[in-house]
Amino acid sequence: MTAERRTNTLYEAVGGADALRRLSDTFYEAVLADPLLAPVFADFTPAHVEHVAVWLSEVFSGPAEFTAELGGHQALLRAHLGLAITEEQRLRWMELMTAAVEKELPDDALLRRRVVEYFDWGTKIAKDVSGEAPGTDLGEPGPTPRWGWDGLA
Questions:
Q1: What is the mean pLDDT of the chain?
Q2: E-assigned strand segments in the chain
Q3: Which pLDDT value is given to residue 6?
Q4: Among 1, 66, 69, 105, who pairs with 58 as Cys (CB 3.0-4.6 Å)?
């Protein structure tokens, strides 16, 4: 990896908010057509695509709008309560997201690997939280995590 790459954030390297919106659009188009995953997203709204792009922007060290405007880490975790995500669903989610990453993000193997590693890490947390009942007190999860060239920052 070059020194230049290390000085750029993943947010900059993926192409910023527009690239993350395209990624989110492509991914959710596939998810909503997938028989295994569509039921998990029964309450899906078009705003979800934008919220995911805003979340990813913040995680990859772009603007902190998810925390400022959408409730931060706590809100994201609460959104997964009660979904009862199975490991089969998590793995299918990863397959569809990996395909979206390959289609929408720059042709850079290290960049794509780091982004997919974030999704693997995050989906494991989402799966764990999803087993808890809606309204469960999750405590204070801390600030929105940041993910960079070396993983969790």
A1: 94
A2: 147-148, 151-152
A3: 64
A4: 66
Among the listed residues 112, 21, 117, the one whose alpha carbon sits nearest the alpha carbon of residue 62: 21
Instruction: Output the six-digit token pair for 138.
Output: 């999750």
Residue 108's alpha-carbon distances to 57, 116, 145, 146, in angstroms, are: 18, 12, 23, 20
Residue recorded with tokens 């929105």: 144
User: Measuring CA to CA, which residue among 56, 68, 60, 17 is closest to residue 146?
Assistant: 60
Cβ atoms 87, 127 nearer than 8 A: yes
Pair 74, 136: CB distance under 8 Å? no
DSSP 107: S
pTM assigned to the model: 0.93
Q: Model confidence over 67-123: pLDDT tens digits? A: 999 999 999 999 999 999 999 999 999 999 999 999 999 999 999 999 999 999 999
Euclidean distance between CA atoms 88 and 32, whole angstroms? 16
Q: What angle do CA 69, 89, 79 make, to 5 degrees?
A: 20
